[in-house]
Amino acid sequence: MMALRADFCWFPVHNTRRNLIRSRAVLSAGPRDATKGEDLQMPQRDLLDTMLKRQKVLADFADFALQSDDLDEVLQEACRLVAAAMGTERAKVLEIEDDGDSLFLRAGIGWAPGDVGHLRLSMQDHSSESFAIRAREPVITRDIAQEDRFEVPDFMKKEGIVALVNVPIFLPRQGAFGLLQVDDTRPRDFDGHDSAFLRTYAGILGPIVDRLLRLRDLRATEERFRLTVEAAADYAIFVTDAEDRITDWLPGAAAVFGWTAEEVRGKPSAMLYTPEDRAAGVPDQERDTALRQGSAPDVRWHLRKDGSQVFIEGSRRALGHMPGGGFLKIGQDVTERRLADEQLRASEERLRLLGELAPALLWQADATGDRIELNGRALGYLGQSPGELQAGGWLDSVHPEDREATAQAFAEAFRSGQPLELQYRLRGRDGGYHWFLCRQVPWQDANGRLAGWFGAALDIDELRRLQMRQEVLVAELQHRTRNLIGVVRSVAHQTMGETGSIGAFREAFDHRLKALSRVQGLLSRAEHEPITLRALLSLELDALGAAEGQRLPLQGPPVCIRPSHAQTLALALHELATNARKHGALSGAGGRLGIRWELRDGPAGRHLHIDWHEDGLNRAGACPAEPRADGGYGRVLIEQALPHSLGARTTYALGLTELRCTIDLPLDAGTSGRS
Amino acid sequence: MTTVASLSGRHILLVEDDFIIALDQAAMLEEAGARVVGPAPTVAAALDLVARSEHLDGAVLDVNLRGETSYPVADALRTRSVPFVFLTGYDPSIIAADYADAPVCEKPLDLQRVARGIFG
């Protein structure tokens, strides 16, 4: 504890006494000055006894004063002893009060109990007390009735005081503390011995009073200090010696660390550090820094008695100016704040990660939208520096066609404080634009004022592409359906025109509808499974029960047929196959069918050349009423529909033993050909 | 009210690239007494017919012809003040804004509508 006192100032005390010294007045010698040599009239024997007795009083008082720290007790004893030594019944100590204008009856003997410790006297210039202080020596009044140098207080006269001696008490190197007064109710002829004794007595009293006053101040200071540090329960305060062993362990330290003063006194302060810090030499480093720089920060986890850890934010101060040196350590337990900080940081980190994880461009803007902060994904997508994005700079990344509308929508949101939802295209760092769905909401501060904005933009490019594609697909489907209805109607009308009976119509129409249906199946899968010529042919021939094999040589390279060509081509091939099944190579009446195709290059691009050849036919006995495809719907499809719809060139030659049909289909000319 | 009968004796240009459909449309028009000019499968063929036909009373134009649009044919007909209708399997909204005032019929062909489209 000694170490701590250096931090406090001594309070200035007894200034008024110092002032009294300076204003010392010229003393006029009284008519009965104590120095008159009447002592010799006293018998030598009595004198010796008195002096011995007084010597003993002085010695007893000194003993008593050494053993007591209580000023009042000492002054009371001083009064008792001096009264006894002087052979009077009354003595008292008057203390000059801080205002310098009054005297306080501090201690006394022979006085009414209500007076001592209570009575105050005005200290005027013409009082006996002021006179004595100015005189700086005992002032004897043998009889107050004859006193003309000063006035004697009324209460003393009432008590019947007749004679008194005022002995000023001076504090070493300071002013007067007050007065020792020895009173007698009888006229008393105090002599030079009395005066000398009282002077000696006051001379002893002064330093003793001084010591006790200082002690009193020190105790007050210590008490204040103790109250202060003991109240600071959140602050761990302790003192170590030069070897860093704990010497003083205050209640706050006990509260924070859990150990009692008895448990830690004499132990190295390193015990409070974590094993890791001890192993890393932290305590020594901290001590060295404190010795070198006066103090060292100590902000780290420390150990508690129960093994848990406490985060201390504090410092170590070197007490180099104090005897024995050592260190003062003061630290605050900020564990909760630290944990809260850590939790906050963890929470912020989680939020940041969430922000990076979310497949969205996120931003935070101030109320006016001038300052924005973006997440890593947004910065990565835009490829602009954070600085370029400020004050609306991000609008540079908006597609020129969307920029004005976007700028207006945001300006309106910032003006009105309303949430915003908008779709626009944003340029990525690769220069390409993606569609984004953007939402921005305002947030208010604790006072309900608009504090800023949170925004998120979701890349909906793929979604929009799919939507658009879906729209296209739906339109195509509608178109195909309507076309198909037209085709079906047309096929029905044509079939009706060439068949006589309803039964024949039904059979022929049914076959053609089935062929249409088959090609629709291919068309619906065409996106994933391109339609090949071989697939078209196999589908038709399989439908007739003819399997690809030796009788059905299909020869040709893989060729993809455009979906827009597939339907008309399939219907034409269906007619060829149906006729072969009814009348030709597939009828079972002999003959062979061969289908070959190849790719040819022409001036306008590639052509697919298909050669349908039936031979070994025996048409000599064929009924002339059966026209084969001549003039029939098949021939119409081949000779008119294929050229008209697909730009193909076709031939159809039917002889007595063979049928040859060629279809030359441009593959590269024109485009979709849809209507 | 305009009826199918108004087609009778009229020279109607038919522009349709799908022959199977065109065949039927032509048959329907002819049944109504119209004289079919065409059918033309391409813009070029249709423009050729427009140029060569002295007499044209109206036209039925498929919008998409093998990847082209029949708008040049519409322009040529407008020049000659020949009324026409567009015919399409798509939604009528696909017609370009320049031809927004032209009547549009959806496929399959409905003679009544076509007659009303052409002759009002």
UniProtKB/TrEMBL annotation, chain A:
Coiled coil region boundaries: none
Keywords: ATP-binding, Flavoprotein, FMN, Kinase, Nucleotide-binding, Phosphoprotein, Repeat, Transferase, Virulence
Domain of life: Bacteria
All copies of domain PAC, residue ranges: 420-472
Stretches assigned to the PAS domain: 221-278, 347-417
EC number, UniProt record: 2.7.13.3
Record has Transferase as a keyword: yes
Pfam family, one: PAS_3
Transmembrane stretches, start-end: none
Record's catalysed reaction(s): ATP + protein L-histidine = ADP + protein N-phospho-L-histidine
Protein name: histidine kinase
One biological process term in Gene Ontology: regulation of DNA-templated transcription
PANTHER family, A to Z: HISTIDINE KINASE, TWO-COMPONENT SYSTEM SENSOR PROTEIN
Alphabetized Gene3D superfamilies for the sequence: 3.30.450.40, Histidine kinase-like ATPase, C-terminal domain, PAS domain
A single MF term (Gene Ontology): protein histidine kinase activity
CDD domains membership: PAS (cd00130)
NCBIfam families, alphabetized: sensory_box (TIGR00229)
Automatic annotation (TrEMBL), chain B:
Ranges for domain Response regulatory: 11-120
PROSITE patterns in alphabetical order: RESPONSE_REGULATORY
Keywords: Phosphoprotein
Residue numbers of 4-aspartylphosphate PTMs: D62
Example GO BP: phosphorelay signal transduction system
InterPro entries: CheY-like_superfamily, Sig_transdc_resp-reg_receiver
Name of the protein in question: CheY chemotaxis protein or a CheY-like REC (Receiver) domain
Source organism of this protein record: Paracoccus chinensis
Record lineage: Bacteria, Pseudomonadati, Pseudomonadota, Alphaproteobacteria, Rhodobacterales
